[in-house]
Amino acid sequence: MKDYIARPKYNDRIKPFVGADLIKVLVGQRRVGKSYLLRQVRDEIALAGACNFILIDKENEAFDHIRTAANLTEYIKTKAVTTTGATNYLMIDEVQEIAEFENSVRSFAAKPNFDVYLTGSNSEILSSELATRLSGRYIEIPVYSLDFNEFSVFHDLEKKTENLHLFLKYGGMPFLRNLALNDEQAFEYLKNVFTSILYRDVVGRYSVRNVNFLDRLIRFTADNIGSMLNAKKISDYLKSQQVNISVNTVLDYLSYLVNAQIIVPVKRMELKGKRILEVNEKYYFQDMGIRNALSGYRVSDMGKLMENCVFNHLISHGYTVYTGDWQQKEIDFVAEKNNERVYIQVAYLLTEPSTIEREFGNLELIRDNYKKMVVSMDVQSRNTRDGIEHWNLLQFLADFS
């Protein structure tokens, strides 16, 4: 009997590669549901008939003895079948916990009777090791916490504004479906998840000594989601707080947080020259609930949270996202997928003429034929101004893909 709620969006992305001579790698923050997606894939494969599954979960102490590539190879050999025509489906959860895993995985992936699936929560380790040892032999599938449609299914909620606010506040960690959606239970769980990620995937992985600074950096980033940031600006701010940290250290620590999938950097695109700029990135949290558990949930932050929410929705639906720069006017998001582009501005409420003019006016300056839209919390039917669509956030999260 299934002990999970299916996430068809990811199943549809994985299914075309089942049986293909490629290693399937699911990459995402801890606790976003990668293990359950492996179970979903396993159950789909099992429908075809008898299969031999070799399942290794590195978060289960039963597999603590598998610490090196040699341990991994030895274990797999004891579980593999060699019957003609039989396929061994090798599934390893949190594979980065196994030293030099790529050596063993490469060996088995080359065998015609193996189909390999991996999950991992450190993007740097996975991308560098796989690219070095398995170049051209793997497909990477990013996994994120629940989007609003999935959140509604997991919590058995209608797609209404009041439930949208629950999503904006508590985020999309799948396990929250087992808890009451209140501050006491949800935020306590999210703080524990964050602490686990921080110490396992940042402090432990990179031997971070200045944990106090790391904590300050995370909270500064949480308070400034959607703002243009660079290492010098952060360093200068910390110096004003009597914390003397070099720019290089800030850069290193930011990269650790990115690799652990806690935050996501968004580069700027100069739209006129079509250049990607290397300074003043924006950062967003992969899960808004974790951000709010750390920084607090305030109505005054609603614009930031909406922006983070729209960004998460875009990347979870396969868009490559930039922030745009057009003649020194900022475009919140330039999202690209399948050779198409959409420009998006995000505003809390369009109640002031100056706000309306800024959000629509910036988009009107861009004279091309790609879709342009403004997303706000205003409750209304979808309408347009000079071809620019106005979407309510609830509509956007429910319908835009």
Percent strand: 15-25%
Radius of gyration: 22 Å
| Oligomer classification | single chain
Counting helices, strands and paired strands, the structural category is: alpha/beta
Strand order of the largest sheet: 7-6-8-9-10-11-13-12
Count of discrete domains: 2
Spans where pLDDT lies below 50 across 5 or more residues: none
Q: What is the molecular shape?
A: globular
Q: Helix-strand pattern, N to C?
A: HEHEHEHEHEHHHHHHEEHHEEEHEEEH
Tally of DSSP β-strands = 13
Helix content: 40-55%
**N- to C-terminal distance:** 31 Å
Please outline the major beta sheet: 8 strands, mixed
Give structural notes.
The chain has an eight-stranded mixed sheet with strand order 7-6-8-9-10-11-13-12, sandwiched between helices. Strands 2-3-4-1-5 form a five-stranded parallel sheet, with helices on both faces. Helix 3 packs parallel to helix 4, helix 7 crosses helix 12 and helix 8 packs across helix 12. It has 15 helices and 13 strands. The protein folds into two domains: 135 residues, P-loop containing nucleotide triphosphate hydrolases (Rossmann fold); 252 residues, no CATH class.
List keywords for this structure.
401 residues, alpha/beta, 2 domains, 5-stranded parallel β-sheet, 42% helix
Q: How do the helices and strands line up, and which of them pair or pack?
A:
Elements: H1 8-14, E1 23-27, H2 34-46, E2 52-57, H3 69-79, E3 88-93, H4 101-109, E4 114-120, H5 123-133, E5 138-142, H6 148-154, H7 161-170, H8 183-206, H9 211-223, H10 231-240, H11 247-259, E6 263-270, E7 275-285, H12 288-295, H13 302-316, E8 320-326, E9 329-337, E10 340-346, H14 353-364, E11 371-376, E12 383-385, E13 388-392, H15 393-399
Parallel strand pairs: 1-4, 1-5, 2-3, 3-4, 6-8, 10-11, 11-13
Antiparallel strand pairs: 6-7, 8-9, 9-10, 12-13
Helix pairs in contact: 3-4, 7-12, 8-12, 10-11
